[in-house]
Write a structure and sequence with these properties.
Strand order of the largest sheet: 6-5-4-7
Organism: Trachymyrmex cornetzi
Strand content: 25-35%
CATH architecture of the largest domain: 2-Layer Sandwich
Largest sheet: 4 strands, mixed
Number of strands: 7
CATH class of the largest domain: Alpha Beta
CATH topology of the largest domain: Nucleotidyltransferase, domain 5
Protein name: AC9 transposase
InterPro entries: RNaseH-like_sf (IPR012337)
Structural class: alpha+beta
Order of helices and strands: EEEHHHEEEHEHH
Distance between the termini: 39 Å
Number of domains: 2
């Protein structure tokens, strides 16, 4: 995937003006946003910088744009993370056709907000190459407790119809919340061994 962001620096903020996204085997998605504030609100210095960028860099005028600025965050998130419904459905269909998968989970914080991200990996039976996809980037409200981690991971697994027989491993860091989540709710080695003895 290729993502191109263009915009203006106003004060200490980067004002997104244009987003272009090119995904593999997909058409180019292109968005031009309206300005977040009137031109008259800018200082003389900011107007000079914006005029220079318009003339010599990307050619966009401050007033150009058709998409409301309030949609910037959602559209950029969809472009970068791939949370559009069609992408999820494509991943879901493919995951249903493979026998075994591995998932990863991680919790992180940014700008006083927390998130849980998950990815999935599998071996393509035709090419024998590893393939993968991002399957979740969820807002994580409250404390990062082991039971909340488990709840979100299980919910994502359920949404993609991943049962314990399909998931070979879930990889996470060794944070105390992750360790406790897998100790309390994870499969034991005896469960895995017994399952593999039954299917072989």
């Amino acid at each position: 995937m290729f993502v191109d962001l263009q915009g203006f620096i106003v004060g200490k903020k980067f004002i997104v003006k244009e987003v272009a996204v090119l995904r593999t085997e997909s058409i180019l998605s292109h968005y031009i946003f309206t300005c977040p504030m009137p031109w008259s609100f800018l200082t003389k210095s900011e107007k000079y910088c914006a005029s220079w960028l318009s003339a010599y860099h990307h050619g966009l005028q401050w007033e150009d744009g058709t998409i409301p600025y309030s949609m910037v965050k959602r559209l950029i998130t969809m472009a970068v993370i791939g949370t559009e419904e069609c992408d999820d459905n494509k991943t879901l269909v493919y995951v249903k056709t493979v026998d075994f998968v591995c998932t990863t989970a991680d919790v992180w914080s940014s700008s006083k907000r927390s998130y849980l991200g998950m990815t999935i990996y599998w071996i393509n039976s035709d090419t024998l190459k590893r393939e993968g996809a991002a399957i979740a980037c969820r807002r994580f409200k409250g404390a990062h407790t082991y039971d909340k981690v488990t709840e979100i991971i299980n919910k994502v697994h359920s949404e993609f119809e991943l049962n314990l027989n399909k998931i070979m491993n879930t990889i996470a860091d060794n944070g105390s919340n992750m360790v406790k989540a897998f100790k309390m709710f994870g499969r034991s080695e005896s469960d895995v061994t017994l399952y593999h003895q039954i299917i072989t």
